[in-house]
Write a structure and sequence with these properties.
The structure holds 2 protein chains of 2 kinds. Chain A folds into 4 domains: about 170 residues, no CATH class; about 190 residues, no CATH class; about 210 residues, no CATH class; about 150 residues, no CATH class. Chain A has 23 helices and 20 strands. Chain A has a 6-stranded mixed beta barrel with strand order 2-3-8-5-7-6. In chain A, strand 2 and strand 3 form a beta hairpin. In chain A, helix 14 runs antiparallel to helix 19. Chain B is an alpha+beta fold. Chain B has 2 domains: about 220 residues, 3-Layer(aba) Sandwich (Rossmann fold), CATH 3.40.50.300; about 120 residues, Sandwich (Jelly Rolls), CATH 2.60.120. Chain B is about 35% helix and about 30% strand. In chain B, strand 4 and strand 5 form a beta hairpin. In chain B, helix 3 packs across helix 4, helix 4 crosses helix 5 and helix 11 crosses helix 12. The radius of gyration of chain B is 24 Å and the shape is elongated. Chain B starts with 9 loop residues before the first strand and ends in a 14-residue tail after the last helix. The relative contact order of chain B is 0.11. Classes of the chains: A alpha+beta, B alpha+beta. Chains A and B meet through helix 1, helix 8, helix 9 and helix 11 of A and strand 1, helix 2 and helix 3 of B.
Chain lengths: ~800, ~375
């Protein structure tokens, strides 16, 4: 091997700590890119594959009870590949804590030979026998009961039945027939045989039609055409179509969240790579600084600048390839580890650990290019040094000895010891290197703090959504009852303050060509309701005296971009096409919510033929600011009292449970943000370690002189530690300032990808204080090794150092 | 002294080097004119801070003059850019440093191969064998695979010399090559230099050690960034460098025809003469009228009016030899006495030297030994 290349490997092996720092700097950037790419590719691939593997329904139509005859008719419709049916009913089940929680029971026609929306058995028995139940793993924990235990169900009539819980399954289609956050909002899912229904006081009829198309299973336009034909057939059979929902076979219900997570992670991954480049530049500058003497020697024995540049570019390449070999398996493994956590939370079945070729390729090219680009300036700068400077160690360009601004002002400080002043001066001695270190740490801190602010803004947005659900208890009855009676009954319950009766219906948009469009949820509170605090974006809210007025959430503009206040919107409600006049638009939860509309109670009740009656009630307590537990308790009392009065309660839920559920879902995202922020913090601390190490090496002679005039180990260690902590504190201060714009950017990016809307900036001081503690710890840790090295140097060593 | 352009290898013309410092401009070299020929063995001597290392950096191209020109082997060194200079250095120059400057992570064999590697001077297949041969030459053949840190200071310097010879350069420049060595190692280094000179290399050594300088054929003295005239330095070694430098500045060049009288007793205010070229005959004239050729003074010898003062029984005169003209440096009487007046030490040294000479001259029947001949 030629000596110049031999020098490359000797440089690499000769100073292991320094080499480790450079390799770590490169690895971290590659790791971030590789991890994120692997996660995104595997998640999207596996999401599609796993969802498609259960043969999910392309069309889901809800109607009233039907039997196999309808299925036979549907199977003959053009474009239909398969058709099946289930009955879905919401019951109440008592959990281990004695609480009654909703359970969505799915009675399946042929459990053993499920064709559509297949479930995957995970534990216990499958399929269940008659009068046995199996539940999905998601929210199984809410039951607080093990497989093999007996669950107590409460039927709409008030009858209670016990059913043994015989197994667990995994159902990837939860939330598939709803928009947005259907999965996260879904209750416990139970699975029973069709012949169990009579025992549960349900007709042995199906109410959900599941259809797969014969081709183009991911072409929504084609699926919609088939859905039209299927809906027509249902109506021809004399059955109403309540809702009709279409979805591609590879379109996982939670794919929206993946896109949101991916966009944010990609942004942060780029940032980590960017920071890594700074770190590489900083570390290579220090490396080249240590090599100045050798560069001078090489120039004296005939090396041209280009040859010397080539030596160090090769050195960087070797570092890069080592980093690549380390980062590939690391990124791949960590990515899959995180996916195993995430997958369970968003209902995705992973297809197995594997290397993602795209990620490996990306990491390879970045390893090839990024460190070279980051290192080219330090190399060109370092090799530009003249021989006389390199060999004498003195710069011939600028006169030294002149006190800078920092030195001059430091002298004015009173009450600060000389050694401490030395630390302060040393911090600012190499301004370029300090700047690079500060950039890394500052950005790390800014993102770290921003993560907390983003979480705050997400929670604020969710709380904003909660303004549409201001009741303490939401209750629904099995049948429409007189509002006055229910109101009077509820007011007897201790703690109840006020009661509102709401009308509720599902409908379908009628498109300009007369076909049925997306499902619409219509909510109709009383005009004087105090339980909705809307965020009206355009027009107005529903007012007393309104008849066919309607306000729409922001989703409607996705279908009708030109829809304006004053226009007419036609909605199919229970088979009748009703014209509404649009009076306003309000902001809700963006693409996480469905198509939601509000109209007046009186008008909708009349349409439903239920004037002065309601089956949905909103209850407020007689004092404000109930906790979630207090709301649940109030709901329990309401349910008990109503049932004691002979009413059949379908469901009661605490007002805050909606926001809590949504918050839990978004915690996944903020968890990832914290992981990335921590990664960035690691980058920053590596940079600080490198900077302090190089500073110590450069001040070797100074340290020797201080030793010769009395500085002991502790003094020397403190010099370095103070310098490290000071840099940390400066970065904390700058990071806090930078966190504001970064928080706004991140918040808007996340909120827009999740909700299709930006939010007002939210500031939470937690992040600032937590980062202060974190950066102080990191600074101390980063200082330990360089401080120890400085104290280890002897006078003889350093004054002979040349 | 005007530059002799017949010095083919190195020509330094009107070179000054000024460093800018916080305390102001510092002139390290002042109007240096110097040349070296092929095959010379030269030492550049000066105290610390005299400018000798700066001077050598002008020759090696490590630094550039502020004013003036440097030509080495017909190349305008300071007109080359860094890359050209590096390549030129690798092929034409071998530099030996006081602190060795070996690359610590390479074995001494690899250090020796490295210049060949950079300059592509030899085919790759030959480089290792050539490097081993060079290490054998310096007595380190067995240590070839060792790292510099595993060798003694002397061995490291020998390795550095082997490296300097890697591309067979015509010129070797050594900056304090023995400054960091014990006397035994230093002697070994100098023996090696002697051998290289015999092989035809041109060697320039920078040193503050005058005993080392005695090993070289030519000595160039530098003091306060200025050259001391070599003939004055040779003729008056008892003076300090600043004193020599003073005389160098006071002296003017004079030419004398063959047989011309330079000085005689009845013209006692003759000042000081230093012979630069040719021969000067010292003739004693006795009161009996007889004359006797006492001594032939060649280049690097001197005489002054102090010698004329000392003799009372006879008189001395100095004339150029009949067969050749004489070039001499002459310090006038006034300047000479002003010089003596500035330094009692110098006056004492010169008077003492004159007194010793006068004692030998009083035995005319005996063979005369040369008191002034320093070669």
């Amino acid at each position: 091997m030629r000596p110049r290349w031999r020098k490359v490997f000797s440089d690499l092996w000769g100073n292991k700590l320094r080499s480790l720092l450079v390799i770590a700097s490169i690895t971290i950037g590659l790791f971030a890119v590789g991890m994120i790419t692997s996660m995104y590719v595997i998640l999207t691939e596996d999401m599609r594959a796993s969802y498609a593997s259960v043969n999910p329904a392309n069309i889901t139509i809800s109607t009233i009870g039907f039997d196999d005859d309808l299925l036979d008719r549907i199977r003959k419709v053009e474009g239909v590949a398969q058709a099946d049916g289930i009955r879905q009913v919401v019951l109440q089940v008592q959990n281990g804590s004695g609480e009654w929680i909703p359970v969505e029971v799915n009675a399946i026609r042929d459990l053993e030979n499920m064709e559509i929306n297949q479930v995957h058995p995970e534990q216990g028995q499958w399929p269940p026998d008659e009068r046995q139940v199996v539940v999905d793993g998601y929210k199984f924990a809410d039951l607080e009961a093990p497989v093999g235990s007996t669950l107590l169900f409460e039927l709409p009539s008030g009858t209670r039945r016990e059913m043994p819980l015989v197994g667990l399954v995994h159902d990837q289609t939860i939330g598939a027939s709803q928009e947005g956050g259907g999965y996260f909002l879904a209750p416990v899912q139970g699975y029973v045989t069709l012949d169990t229904l009579p025992w549960l006081e349900q007709p042995e009829l199906m109410n959900r039609l599941l259809v797969t198309v014969d081709q183009n299973q991911n072409d929504l336009e084609y699926i919609k055409q088939v859905a039209e034909r299927v809906a027509d057939e249902v109506e021809n059979a004399g059955l109403p179509v309540f809702t009709s929902f279409v979805r591609g076979s590879e379109d996982h219900p939670n794919s929206t969240y993946v896109e949101a997570i991916a966009s944010v992670l990609f942004l942060l991954g780029l940032l980590v790579m960017f920071l890594s480049a700074f770190l590489i530049t900083n570390t290579l500058s220090a490396l080249l600084g240590q090599q100045v003497n050798q560069i001078g020697i090489m120039k004296t024995i005939g090396a041209r600048r280009g040859q010397i540049v080539g030596i160090y570019l090769l050195l960087i390449l070797v570092f890069s390839m080592i980093a690549f070999l380390v980062a590939v398996p690391l990124a791949s493994r960590v990515a899959y580890l995180l996916l195993e956590v995430l997958g369970g939370q968003i209902n995705v079945v992973l297809q197995g650990y594997r290397l993602v070729p795209l990620a490996v390729l990306l990491m390879f090219f970045i390893a090839l290019l990024a460190p070279q680009l980051a290192g080219i300036y330090p190399i060109l700068h370092g090799t530009r040094v003249s021989v006389v400077e390199a060999l004498s160690g003195i710069s011939a360009q600028k006169p030294s000895g002149k006190k800078g601004w920092v030195d001059t002002h430091l002298q004015t400080l009173r009450g600060v010891s000389r050694p401490m002043l030395i630390s302060l001066r040393n911090t600012f001695r190499r301004k370029g290197r300090l700047a690079l270190t500060l950039i890394t740490l500052t950005l790390a801190g800014a993102i770290f703090i921003a993560t907390f602010n983003v979480q705050g803004s997400l929670n604020k947005y969710i709380a904003r959504i909660g303004k549409y659900f201001l009741a303490d208890v939401n209750m629904s009855l099995a049948s429409y009852e007189r509002i006055s009676e229910i109101r009077q009954t509820l007011l007897e319950v201790p703690g109840v303050g006020d009661v509102e009766a709401w009308a509720f219906s599902l409908g379908e948009l009628v498109m300009p060509d007369g076909s049925n469009g997306e499902a619409v949820t219509l909510l109709a509170p009383p005009a004087e309701t105090r339980l909705v605090d809307p965020l009206v974006q355009e027009g107005r809210w529903i007012e007393p005296g309104d008849e066919n007025a309607i306000t729409l959430n922001e989703r409607f503009r996705e279908i009708f971009p030109d829809l304006q206040v004053g226009d007419t919107l036609t909605i199919n409600i229970l088979g009748d096409e009703v014209d509404f006049q649009v009076v306003g638009f309000f902001q809700m939860a963006g693409r996480s919510s469905g198509y939601l509309a509000y109209t007046s109670y009186e008008y909708l009740a009349e349409l439903l033929g239920q004037e002065n009656k309601a089956n949905a009630y909103r209850v407020t307590a007689n004092r404000p600011n109930l906790t979630l537990e207090e709301q649940k308790a109030l709901g329990q009392r309401i349910e008990t009292h109503l049932e004691n009065q002979g009413y059949s309660v379908v469901e009661t839920s605490a007002g805050q449970s909606l926001t809590e559920t949504t918050t839990d879902g978004l915690n996944i995202l903020t968890g990832f943000l914290l992981i990335m922020a921590s990664l960035i913090a690691v980058v920053g601390s590596i940079g600080l370690t490198g900077t302090l190490s190089m500073n110590v090496l450069e001040r070797t002679r100074e340290i020797g002189i201080m030793r010769s005039i009395g500085a002991n180990n502790r003094t020397l260690r403190n010099l370095v530690m103070v310098e490290g902590v000071l840099i940390g504190i400066i970065s904390w201060f700058l990071g806090t300032l930078l966190a504001f714009p970064i928080s706004i950017l991140l918040s808007n990016a996340i909120n827009f990808s999740l909700f299709g809307a930006t939010v007002a900036f939210t500031f939470t001081p937690n992040g600032i204080f937590i980062w202060l503690v974190t950066v102080l710890i990191l600074s101390v840790l980063a200082s330990v090794l360089p401080a120890r090295n400085s104290a280890r140097l002897t006078i003889r060593e350093v004054l002979a150092y040349e | 002294m005007p530059l002799d352009l017949s010095c083919a290898l190195i020509q330094i013309q009107n070179v000054s080097k000024i460093f800018k410092t916080q305390a102001g401009d510092f002139t390290a070299l002042k109007d240096i004119n110097l040349c070296f020929g092929q095959g010379e063995y030269v030492s550049i001597i000066g105290k610390s801070g005299s400018g000798k290392s700066t001077l050598i950096n002008m020759i090696t191209g490590i630094d550039h003059p502020t004013i003036g020109e440097v030509r080495v082997a017909e190349h305008d060194v300071h007109h080359m850019n860094e890359s050209q200079l590096a390549e030129w250095r690798g092929r034409n120059l071998g530099i030996v440093f006081q602190f060795f400057q070996l690359l610590p992570m390479l074995s001494i064999l690899e250090n020796t191969i490295l210049p060949m590697d950079f300059c592509n001077q030899y085919p790759p297949a030959e480089r290792e064998s050539r490097a081993r041969a060079l290490l054998d030459l310096v007595g380190l053949g067995v240590e070839a695979e060792k790292l510099p840190a595993a060798l003694s200071g002397g061995q490291q310097q020998l390795a550095a010399i082997a490296r300097a010879l890697a591309n067979d350069p015509p010129l070797i420049v050594a900056d304090e090559p023995t400054g960091n060595l014990d006397s035994r190692s230093a002697a070994r280094i100098l023996d090696l230099f002697d051998e290289l000179v015999v092989q035809g290399k041109t060697i320039i050594i920078v040193t503050h050690d005058s005993s080392l300088a005695k090993r070289t054929a030519r000595r160039v003295l530098i003091s306060d960034g200025m050259l001391i005239d070599e003939n004055i330095a040779h003729a008056l070694p008892m003076l300090s460098h600043p004193q020599m430098l003073r005389l160098s500045h006071l002296a003017v060049a004079r030419s004398f025809q063959p047989g011309a009288t330079l000085a005689k007793h009845d013209n006692g205010k003759v000042g000081l003469f230093v012979v630069a070229q040719g021969h000067v005959e010292a003739v004693r004239h006795y009161r009996s009228g007889e004359s006797e050729l006492v001594e032939r003074l060649g280049p690097g010898a001197y005489f002054s009016e102090l010698e004329l003062e000392q003799d009372e029984r006879s008189t001395l005169s100095f004339r150029s030899a009949a067969e050749e003209s004489v070039e001499a440096l002459w310090v006038s009487h006034e300047a000479f006495y002003h010089f003596l007046g500035e330094s009692h030490a110098a006056e004492s040294a010169l008077r003492q030297a004159a007194g010793e000479r006068f004692g030998h001259v009083h035995r005319p029947a005996q063979p005369r030994k040369s008191f002034w001949w320093r070669r």
